[in-house]
Amino acid sequence: MSLVNTLRTMPRYRLTVLAVFLVAAGGGCGSFFGQYVLKMNPCVMCIQQRLALVATMLIALLCLALPHRKLFGRTLAALLISAPAAFGAWVAAKQIHLQSLPPAEQPDCGAPLSFLLKNKPLFKLYEPLLRGDSGFAAVLLIVWAMWLRTCKQ
C-alpha cells in the first residue's frame, strides 16, 4: 500500500493529529535552525515557545500511537494536544504585543539563554530540554518505524 493510499484511508481525526505533529516538528526544526545555523540567541519567551512546540509534538505523536475509537478518547487527546499549543500561542501573542510597542516603551523580552545558564543554578536541571540532543531523532525514528509496521498489518 502506498503512502498516498494510506493517508486516504486514515480517519480524518488521525490526519489532523498527523498534521499537528508535522507542523510542530517543522516549527521545532525551524527554531533550532535559527539558533544553531543562523546564530540567533533565543530569549526566554522563544524558549517557552520552543518547549510548547516540543510538548505539542510529543503529545500528538503519543495520540497517533494510541487507538482512539471512541469519541471520549479523541476529545481527550484533542484537549491534551491543545493545552501546550494554547500556551505557546499565548506566549507568541505576548511577544508580538511587546514587539509592537513604540521603541521607547519596548521592554526586553527576557535574558538570553547564555545568561540563564551562568546565573540560574536550577536551570541545569532542565538545560537538556532546551539545548537538545541528537538521541531524540533515533527514538523518533524507532517509534515511527513501529507505527508504520503496525499500519501495514
User: SSE string, helix = H, strand = E?
Assistant: HHHHHHH
Count of DSSP strands:
0
Radius of gyration: 18 Å
Distance between the termini: 11 Å
Uncertain residue segments: none
**From the helix content, strand content and strand pairing, which structural class follows?**
mainly alpha
Q: Sheet with the most strands?
A: none
Oligomeric category: single chain
User: Overall pLDDT, averaged?
Assistant: 78
Fraction of residues in helix: over 70%
How many helices? The count is: 7
Shape: elongated
In percent, how much strand structure appears in the residues? under 5%
Structure description:
The chain is built from seven helices and no strands. The protein is mainly α and 153 residues long. Helix 2 runs antiparallel to helix 3 and helix 3 packs antiparallel against helix 4. The N and C termini lie close together (11 Å). The model has no long low-confidence stretch (mean pLDDT 78).
What are the salient characteristics of this protein?
153 residues; mainly alpha; 0% strand
Explain the layout of strands and helices.
Elements lengths: L2 H7 L2 H25 L7 H22 L5 H30 L12 H7 L3 H9 L3 H18 L1
Helix pairs in contact: 2-3, 3-4
Give me a quick take on this structure:
This protein has helices at residues 3-9, 12-36, 44-65, 71-100, 113-119, 123-131, 135-152.
